[in-house]
Amino acid sequence: MKQITLTVNGTPHRVTVDDSTLLLDALREQVGCFSVREGCGVGACGACTVLADGMSVSSCLALALRYEGAEITTVEGLGENDHVVNAFVDCDAAQCGYCIPGFVLMSHELLRENPKPTEEQITDHLEGNICRCGTYPEIRKAVATAADRKVGE
């Protein structure tokens, strides 16, 4: 076992890990970021998505040791007035909500890379995230709405 520092949402956290500790487990069990969820455990559903230095990571597959020194963002770190979160709320882009943190973070990644994506680009970027409730039209609308609001600022 060893101690490392994970910087999560701008705050350093000392965590104890071994060579096989998953980033998902360190974030949930030691940092207290419960928006990071295990859906499938094999990186196929997106429920465990976090951003590490702005890039999406399936935390259920990522070893915590590899992320010492990275800036990790979870939805807990997004501001109260986050334009993507607000667009998801305004567009009713959630039913059960289990998958939404992953979709929100993937949307942030997309909008950082492409501030004005087409509907096809939105669909393509989010294809690794699964919504079991089937709110895909509302999710795509929320991302487009967030993009429009950001461009209009």
From TrEMBL:
It holds the Pfam family Fer2. GO terms for molecular function: 2 iron, 2 sulfur cluster binding; metal ion binding; oxidoreductase activity. It comes from Kibdelosporangium aridum. Coiled coil: none annotated. This is Carbon-monoxide dehydrogenase small subunit. The keyword Transferase does not apply. Transmembrane segments: none annotated. Keywords: 2Fe-2S, Iron, Iron-sulfur, Metal-binding, Oxidoreductase. Pathway: Alkaloid degradation; nicotine degradation. It comes from the Bacteria. PROSITE patterns: 2FE2S_FER_1, 2FE2S_FER_2. Residues 2-78 form the 2Fe-2S ferredoxin-type domain. The keyword RNA-binding does not apply. InterPro entries: 2Fe-2S-bd, 2Fe-2S-bd_dom_sf, 2Fe-2S_ferredoxin-like_sf, 2Fe-2S_ferredoxin-type, 2Fe2S_fd_BS, Beta-grasp_dom_sf, Diverse_Oxidoreductases.
